[in-house]
Amino acid sequence: MKLSARNVLKGRVRSVVKGQTTAHVKIELTGGAVITASITNEAVDDLNLREGDEASAVIKASDVIVAK
Amino acid sequence: MKLSARNVLKGRVRSVVKGQTTAHVKIELTGGAVITASITNEAVDDLNLREGDEASAVIKASDVIVAK
Amino acid sequence: MKLSARNVLKGRVRSVVKGQTTAHVKIELTGGAVITASITNEAVDDLNLREGDEASAVIKASDVIVAK
Amino acid sequence: MKLSARNVLKGRVRSVVKGQTTAHVKIELTGGAVITASITNEAVDDLNLREGDEASAVIKASDVIVAK
Amino acid sequence: MKLSARNVLKGRVRSVVKGQTTAHVKIELTGGAVITASITNEAVDDLNLREGDEASAVIKASDVIVAK
Amino acid sequence: MKLSARNVLKGRVRSVVKGQTTAHVKIELTGGAVITASITNEAVDDLNLREGDEASAVIKASDVIVAK
């Protein structure tokens, strides 16, 4: 499967914190940057996401703001 | 100014391509990954964005999808 | 590859219209509904998207508004 | 009221699960596909959303990723 | 029709600028602030949007970043 | 720091309600309109957001839907 999203950034899961319905997942990219994703608990279970897993952060180009 | 967005990724502008109303900007992060942002032409002019500029990609946690 | 996005809706590409930087793609879902996606021209080329292709619309739960 | 959002998909509420501040709502479209929306609890109360209600999923074209 | 989106801000259309596929619309809110929306040309035609029209800016709570 | 986001609306924090992982923040704009933002608890702590603070709501043009 290939995605139209321009940003598929490879890394490794550093933490998974579940709330009542929404979880926060931190992915450390190969370059060292850490990306926080807010996803459903259901998605965490469905992907069986755990610390140490290889995973990617997928982001649409239209969701990126540029700061200078 | 501090932002609630969890992801503020520092890098350098690699390219700026303007369309009629929307522009695509590529930012190379310190770690080597490249992020594409789709922003208005107006924003490109307003920030005076040019290849080589130091810039950051700002992304809300709720806009990040995790792939595994 | 599995995605945290809760909505992965299968269908078939009905049309692809490219602008200068941004393209609009219509996908007809199995049930008959048509979903419009606004993606980069670059993505259209990268996925080699054409009318008639099997494709899915991927949408994060946090991007869905409910109307009643 | 008419919306600029290109995607207004009609269906019926299948479930409403509230968290502490955020709720997940599943809408079954006429064609059979199920769409998950993550909205505020406040919105659930304001729309008085309940299982069985007729409701639509509203999605901007720029929030749709295409997978092939 | 009622929307789950927490932000429905009333105002008046100040300008509509169409690109090849994407248009930029400026809405002046009652309080004086101006909001820019990037929508499809198709939506502009569908709503017959013109300068001076009464219109609202609809924004999901999860799409708002807080700066301080 | 300057942002590509076209909408940076100044106001004052009216309320901050934390859930288990996600918080809802209401900002009253100078013109009187109130904007609700859904952000991470982590962001609330990081910005030390409290009722009465001066703060801005930052919104990308592509996240705004027009209703007429």
Mean pLDDT across the residues of chain A is: 95
Count of alpha and pi helical runs of chain A = 1
Approximate shape of chain A: globular
Approximately how much beta-strand content do the residues of chain A carry? over 45%
Assign the CATH topology of chain A.
OB fold (Dihydrolipoamide Acetyltransferase, E2P)
The N- and C-terminal alpha carbons of chain A lie at a distance of 34 Å
Largest interface: A-B, 37 and 38 residues
**Global structural class of chain A:** mainly beta
Topology diagram in text:
6 copies of one chain form a homohexamer.
Chain A: E1 7-18, E2 22-29, E3 34-40, H1 41-47, E4 54-59, E5 65-67
Antiparallel strand pairs in A: 1-2, 1-4, 2-3
Summarize the structure.
Chain A has one helix at residues 41-47, and strands at residues 7-18, 22-29, 34-40, 54-59, 65-67.
Structure keywords:
homohexamer; 68 residues; mainly beta; OB fold (Dihydrolipoamide Acetyltransferase, E2P); four-stranded antiparallel β-sheet; 1 helix; 10% helix
Question: What do you see in this structure?
Answer:
The structure is a homohexamer of 68-residue chains. Chain A has 68 residues and is mainly beta. Chain A has a single domain (7-60), classed as Beta Barrel (OB fold (Dihydrolipoamide Acetyltransferase, E2P)), CATH 2.40.50. Chain A is 10% helix and 53% strand. Chain A is built from one helix and five strands. In chain A, a hairpin with a 3-residue loop joins strand 1 (7-18) and strand 2 (22-29). Chains in contact: A-B, A-C, A-D, A-F, B-C, B-E, B-F, C-D, C-E, D-E, D-F, E-F. The interface between E and F is large, with 38 and 37 residues.
